[in-house]
Amino acid sequence: MRILPNMMNLNSLKDSKLLDLSSHFVGGNHVEFPSDKEFKVIEPRSGKVLTTWHFATKDQVDTTVKTAKTAQEHWANSTWMERSEILKKTADLLKTHCNDIAYWECISNGKPISEARADVLSCVDTFNFYSGVAHDLLGRHIPLDSARYAYTRRLPVGVVAAIGAWNYPIQTCTWKTAPALACGNSVIYKPSPLSPVTALILAEVLKCAGLPNGVFNVIQGDAETSQHLILHNDVAKVSFTGSIPTGKKIMKSCAERNIKPITLELGGKSSLIILNDADVDSAVSCAMMANFYSQGQVCSNASKVLVHRSLLEELTTKLVNRTKLMKVGDPLKEETKVGAHISADHRNNVEGYINSAIAEGATKLCGGDRITVEGLENGFYLSPCILTNITPKMKVYREEIFGAVLLLIPFDTEEEAITIANDTDMGLAAGLVTKDLARSYRVSEKLNAGNVYVNTFNDVSPLVPFGGIGQSGFGRENGIAVLESYTHQKSVFVNTGDCPNPF
Ligand code: NAD
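^ thats the input. predicted complex w/ nicotinamide-adenine-dinucleotide below
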C-alpha cells in the first residue's frame, strides 16, 4: 500500500491536483494499492479521460475492513457530544466549500452546476440533522413489576459497507454516512466508477472536521470489489443504492455466509397524475421537475405523466414550449438547465428507449436529439424528450428509462389514473397535482409508493424518510427511520430480588 500526501488544504480545493492523487482513502490517508485493474475516470461534459484509478482487490478490501473494524471499536466508545461536534463541523465545512465541491460534482457527474450546488447544500442539512439525533439513540426503561425491570440499548452495528450509484454521488454517500457515523459505526464507501471523485472529497472534509482515522474509508471498485466487501465476515451491514438487478445479487450475497441486514434503494417507474382541477402552469412545472432534473437520471422520476383529458391540449402545448426552451449545454455554465449524461453508453440507452417507443407507435413531440456543445464536442448531451401515444405494451411504459424522457398519457377518471400509476411492480414514488385537499388525501392513500408528492415532485429533506416498496427495495434513508438500519437493540432484563428458582 502506497500512502500519498494528504490531498489538500480545503481552501484550494478547486485548484487542487485531486485527480493526480490516489484511488482510495483508507485509515485517514489517500492510498494507492498496487492493482492491475485500472479504470478510467471520464468527464461526462467533455468525454475526456480525467485520470486513471484502480479497483481494490480482495486483499485490499481485507486491509480496509480491518482498518475500519479497529477504528469502529474506538468510535463506538466516543461520547455523543464528540460525534455531534464532528458531524456539525462537517456540515460547516461542506457549506464553506460548497462551490468548490459542487465544481467537482459537476466535473465528475455532468449535472448542471446549480444542481450540484443544491446537492452539496442538501448534504450540509443532512450532516446538521444527524449531528442532533443523539436523543433518538437513547434506550428505554421498562418497569416489569416491583422487583424487575428491563432496559433497552441502541448499539452500533459495526462496519457498514455502503455502495452507491452515480447519479447523486455526494448526496448518496452522505445519506448513508452521516446517520451511520452518528450511530457509532465505521463506513467503507464504494462509489460508482462512473462518478468516483466527490466521495474522496467528503473523506477529506470529515478528516478536517476531526473524524478519527479509519472511521470513514473510500475504496474504488467494480462488481467484484463490491462482492468481496459484502461477503466479508467483519462487515455487519450493507446499504446499497443502485439498480434492481444489482440489488437482487447483493441481497443474495448478504445471505450467503451470514445473515446480513441490508438496505436496498433501487430503481423506480413512477407517475405524476395531473387531475382536472389542476392549475396548468403549475402542473407543467411539476411535470418538468419530475422528469428533467439531472438529465432525468433520478430514481424517483415520474416518467409517466398522466393528464386528465380535459387539460391535455393546453398542457401539452405549454409543456412542449417550455421544454424546448431548456438550455442544454456545458454544465459548468450557470444558465445550463440540462447537462451531460453520465456516459456514452447511458446516453445510448436513453436514445434506445426513445427509438423503441417510436418503433412501437409512440409519437415524439420534441427532444431526444444529440446536442453538440462547442468546445465539448465529445460530451454526452441529449435534449429532453416528450413522447405521446404511449400504450401499456411498450417497453418505455414498463421499464425505468433513467433519462429525460417524459411520457404523456391521458386519462378520463381518477380511478383510471390510479390504476395506471399503480401498474408497475416498482413502488418508489408517485405524485399528483390538484387544488382539492380532500382529493389529494384520497388519491395519496391509494398510490402504491414509498414517497408521494402533492403539487410538487422529488422534494427531499433529511427529516423525512425516503425509500421504496416492491421491487424498488426496502429500508429507509433519512429521518429518524434510518437510525434503525444502523443500530441494533439490546434488551437487558434485571431482577433486583432473588433469582427465581422454578425447580
Ligand atoms: P448499478 O446497479 O449498475 O450500480 C450501483 C453500484 O453497484 C455501483 O457502485 C456498482 O459498481 C455496484 N455494482 C454493480 N454490480 C454489482 C454487483 N454484482 N455486486 C455488487 N455491486 C455491484 O446502478 P447504477 O447504474 O449505478 O445506478 C442507477 C440505478 O440506481 C437506477 O436504477 C436508479 O433508479 C437507482 N437509484 C436508486 C436510488 C434510490 O434511492 N432508490 C437512488 C439513486 C439511484
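The CA atoms of residues 74 and 212 lie 9 Å apart.
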